[in-house]
Design brief:
The chain is α+β, with helices and mostly antiparallel strands. It has two domains: 158 residues, Nuclear Transport Factor 2, Chain: A (Roll), CATH 3.10.450; 151 residues. 21% of the residues lie in helices and 31% in strands. The chain has five helices and twelve strands. It starts with 18 loop residues before the first strand and ends with a strand.
């Protein structure tokens, strides 16, 4: 169902009026279009079919996944079990100008009902004549889905960039802050956890071993394609979705060769005689406290990471 009192239509003047980003009929249609395109792409293992239904980080991850799967199974995957998303709630902010976005909070047939997980999909588009595409997907437990702030008419509240966000870290600063944290471990922007302190500890073990050494480079996402989006929460914080880029180069000791995984080998250029470089994209959903919160640390609720390119040397 839609957020409370979701009525009216998006006009052609979305570039200058503060209006809901999507109307009550268009949101379910966008979800259906996504499912049709996604399921067809994975049934045929054709990454080009994702172009009309995905963008940003999710498109980068799934395009690489399908490219690798197609090389491994060029005949497609006719036995693909279709993804179904039901029990949809649409979180629709009012926005001026483009791009616009909304979030679909859904239940997936990939998860048992008793697990209580929810799939949150962020739909975006840059103009009225473009289709809605999914830029982010995050899987949260039912308890992790926060309480969103709404206005008097039930519309969600989009979070602006920079200082106007009134957050501990603005949405447009999260990707750089995360890349800097992974590189240096300094600062107190992020709470300890799997994508933060545990990831740095895991990397430390991999940097120098008797068999190989590993170099890591993390960079913030650039460009409108990877723009973060956020919705205000009742406590003044926000749920923000953002992207980051990661590179790792594994160089083997003398006499040893890298052993790329099947999906890495399918994406690889060159020959991995002594080194293997992986390019990765991560997308995350984080809870960002308000700027005046007692604990200002950002908490990761979900993070997906995948290889998008590989190079052998």
């Amino acid at each position: 169902m839609l957020a409370p009192t979701l009525t009216g239509c998006v006009t052609v003047h979305g570039e200058r009026e503060n209006i809901p980003s999507v109307d009550k009929a268009e949101a379910p249609a966008a979800l259906k279009q996504f499912l049709n395109g996604y399921n067809k792409a994975y049934r045929e293992l054709d990454p080009a079919l994702l172009d009309q239904v995905e963008t940003g980080a999710l498109h980068a991850l799934n395009t690489a996944d399908l490219t690798a799967q197609h090389k491994l199974k060029p005949g497609g995957n006719p036995g693909w079990g279709a993804l179904e998303l039901t029990d949809a709630r649409y979180l629709v902010p009012k926005q001026v100008g483009w791009p616009k976005f909304f979030v679909a909070d859904t239940r997936s047939n990939r998860e048992a009902v008793e697990t209580g997980t929810r799939w949150l999909l962020v739909f975006t588009r840059d103009s009225a004549d473009q289709p809605w595409r999914v830029a982010y997907l995050s899987i949260l437990s039912r308890d992790e889905v926060p309480r969103f702030a709404t206005d008097e008419d039930g519309w969600a509240r989009a979070v602006p960039a920079g200082a106007a966000s009134r957050l501990a870290v603005g949405p447009d600063g999260l990707s750089k802050a995360y890349a800097d944290y992974l590189r240096t471990g300094k600062g107190k922007a992020f709470a300890d956890g799997g994508p933060t302190s545990a990831l740095r500890a895991e990397r430390k073990k991999e940097r120098n071993t008797p068999r190989y050494w590993t170099e890591y480079i993390d960079t913030p996402a650039q460009g409108a394609r990877y723009a973060p989006v956020g919705l205000r929460l009742e406590d003044g914080g926000a749920l923000v979705f953002f992207t980051a880029h990661h590179h790792q180069k594994q160089t083997m000791a003398k006499g040893l060769k890298p052993t790329p995984k099947p999906n890495e080998k399918a994406l690889m250029t060159g020959e991995a005689k002594k080194a293997l470089t992986l390019t990765k994209v991560s997308e995350a959903a984080v809870r960002v406290p308000a700027g005046d919160a007692a604990d200002p640390r950002v908490v990761f609720l979900n993070r997906l990471e995948g290889v998008t390119a590989a190079k052998g040397e």
